[in-house]
Write a structure and sequence with these properties.
This protein is α+β, with helices and mostly antiparallel strands. It folds into 4 domains: 103 residues, no CATH class; 74 residues, K homology (KH) domain (GMP Synthetase, Chain A, domain 3), CATH 3.30.300.20; 63 residues, no CATH class; 57 residues, no CATH class. Helix content is 28%, strand content 18%. Helix 2 crosses helix 3. InterPro entries: PSP1-like (IPR047767), PSP1_C (IPR007557). Pfam families: PSP1. It comes from Galbibacter orientalis DSM 19592.
Length: 389
């Protein structure tokens, strides 16, 4: 997830632009769209598309109309229309692919009220923008202190200043509805700027903050995952996972998004299984399914009332018994079909190069006291023999 100018240096910090994935080349942002039309010229008489895609902090992207017909390319810093004042962002996409992205996000590219691009950012614009960005850490800390003093049940996770410094957007998470009218007054008085509060979900917060998951890799939501599908406990049940909330929950406190990654494969595999609600009728009684093994195509059954005695059957055997039940043909019992599963005793490693035994240090050592007594007895026996001689 890094471009050539963001290669890692000392202490894990970026060696080049030091923007942690928000550099001008835009090669290390998870929302980057590859412009495969960049090296192709337009047909004769075809005017270039007059809208561009601009990225701001926190991977926020918006579309703007280039009414001034500026020559823009990916990575240019531009001043865009905002309310109030103007904002500063980085161009991430130009040309015909912008129309495709606007259709994908359901934005009308024929809308005349679409905000426009004022100009390419001057050095003064960039200096004001960077000064506002440098204030964000201190403003976030102060805003949290104000929220705690008012005893508001909310967490301010991030702050984003507008390019001209005239407005600050505070992103927060909360379990319930929060009355932050007094908080806005206190923050406007403390920061001397216009305040906007925007609530986000816990998954969006985890995506902004980042982190390392239980798998040892960076969080999917902060590296490549752009759409958050709903995850429920049914996904864990289909995959025969233990319903332990501590293991199934991610850093956001919600169910892990990776529970959906292999769900379709499990659902396809379960289509080949007989229904777990199907009871097997035998002469010894009805048998109920207790568990299944999707990978080995095995099912465990037990008789009603004999819940501790399980029998292992393959899916083909279960289908055979079900077909016999439908034909009303007698089935003696599950013992005739049950498999005898023996543990695999095949060793995965064999000593073929003559290494020493791993248990060579497990032999108990003789104590020092015993060895001394043995030496004394030997010496006494020698003396007695010499005296007798």
């Amino acid at each position: 997830m890094g471009c050539s100018s963001c290669s890692t240096g000392k202490d894990g910090q970026p060696r080049g632009c030091k923007n942690n994935g928000t550099c001008g080349t835009d090669g290390c942002n998870k929302l980057t769209v590859f412009d495969w039309l960049s090296n192709m010229s337009l047909p004769n008489g075809h005017e270039p598309f007059d809208c561009v895609e601009v990225r701001f902090k926190n991977s926020r992207k918006e579309f703007f109309r280039n009414k001034e017909n500026l020559t823009l390319s990916i990575g240019d810093v531009v001043a865009t229309e905002s309310s109030p004042g103007h904002d500063v962002g980085v161009v991430t996409l130009v040309g015909e692919l912008v129309k495709v992205q606007m259709k994908k996000k359901k934005v009308d590219f024929k809308d005349e009220n679409l905000p426009k691009i004022y100009r390419k950012a001057s050095q003064k614009d960039i200096d004001i923008w960077q000064a506002a960005r440098d204030r964000e850490a201190a403003v976030q800390k102060k805003s949290r202190e104000l929220a705690i003093s008012l005893q508001l049940q909310m967490k301010i996770s991030d702050v984003e200043f507008q390019g001209d410094g005239s407005k600050a957007t505070f992103y927060y998470t909360a379990e319930e509805r929060v009355d932050f009218r007094q908080l806005i007054k206190d923050m406007a008085r403390a920061f001397s700027t216009r305040i906007e509060m925007r609530q986000i979900g816990y998954r969006q917060e985890a995506a902004r903050l980042g982190g390392i998951g239980s798998c040892g890799r960076e969080l999917c939501c902060s590296t490549w995952l752009t759409d958050f599908r709903s995850v429920n406990t049914a996904s864990a049940r289909y995959q025969q996972l233990s319903l332990n909330p501590q293991k199934l929950a991610g850093q956001c406190g919600k169910l892990k998004c990776c529970l959906n990654y292999e769900l379709d494969a499990y659902l396809d595999a379960l289509n080949d299984f007989p229904s777990q609600e199907q009871r097997l009728k035998t002469e010894k009684g009805e048998a109920v399914c207790q568990k299944i093994d999707i990978f080995k195509q095995l099912m465990w059954f037990c008789y009603e009332g004999q819940w501790a005695n399980w029998f292992v059957l393959t899916t083909d055997q279960v289908r055979e018994i079900i077909s016999l039940n439908k034909k009303k043909q007698p089935v003696a019992g599950l013992e005739e079909y049950a498999l005898d599963l023996t543990a695999d005793t095949k060793t995965e490693f064999e000593n073929v190069v003559g290494q020493d035994s791993l248990t060579r240090f497990d032999k108990p050592k003789a104590s020092k006291g015993r060895s001394k007594n043995k030496k004394r007895r030997t010496n006494n026996n020698r003396r007695k023999r010499s005296n007798n001689a």
